[in-house]
Amino acid sequence: MIRALDVTTSLFATVARLGFAERVGPIGARPEKPLELYEFEACPFCRKVREALTVLDLEALIFPCPKGGPRFREEVRRRGGKTLFPYLVDPNTGVEMYESDDINRYLFEKYGQGSVPWLLSIPVVKDATSMLASALRYGGGARYRRAKAPERPLELWSYEGSPFCRIAREALSELEIPYLLRNVAKGSAGREALVRRSGKMMVPYLVDPNTGVEMFESADIVAYLNRTYAIEGDGAR
Ligand SMILES: N[C@@H](CCC(=O)N[C@@H](CS)C(=O)NCC(=O)O)C(=O)O
Questions:
Q1: Which of 41, 43, 49, 67 gets mutated to test ligand 1 (max ligand atoms within 8 A of its CB)?
Q2: Using a 6 Å CB cutoff, which residues line ligand 1?
Q3: CB distance 76 to 85 below 8 Å
Q4: pLDDT digit string (tens) for 86-95?
């Protein structure tokens, strides 16, 4: 896809959500272990939960479940009984749940100050704008492309409101590559750690412990993921 169109539609997706999830909100207790989220990038309900993770400045192990994906969809069916996304696992409390609104209520109750921000709670608005954001990306991150599974999860420094991060996450989603999502929105405690590690504050920043590669730039990240994990013949969009 033409790069300018790619960035513009991803920016429109953020605008559709009124620039939400670019900044950390009031936070509460911190979990000891990262949360685990089964989701896929094109799903508007999953987006709402990823936004909550950004606003609450929480890390999560992301298990992408694109349509046709052979690995993690089956894991969700085994754990919860159905293939419905998002599906949250909190290893700190043993809680596992479906339903984006229930998940967000749980997250803001447990790791925030109790109240859910209006863009994640007003009926119709919360879902309609998230659906619009997904529609603007015409299915990016929705369908599985055949890929090799990495031995260890990758690491992505990111935040939900960044249009460039979305482009990188779509590729991770399509290739069903699990990764530790390290949210570093404005006001995040993680920003300093990213600067120490990478030399500057810029996202997305990908770390691949399987190859030792660490890199900025969404287009380069997508090219790297395709080159390293996609199985030939299953071309990117
Ligand atoms: N009310 C649910 C709706 C979830 C939902 O419909 N998710 C869709 C994806 S956007 C799904 O899991 N579809 C089944 C599939 O992808 O196989 C929620 O808010 O979490």
A1: 43
A2: 43-45, 67, 83-86, 99-101
A3: yes
A4: 999 999 999 9
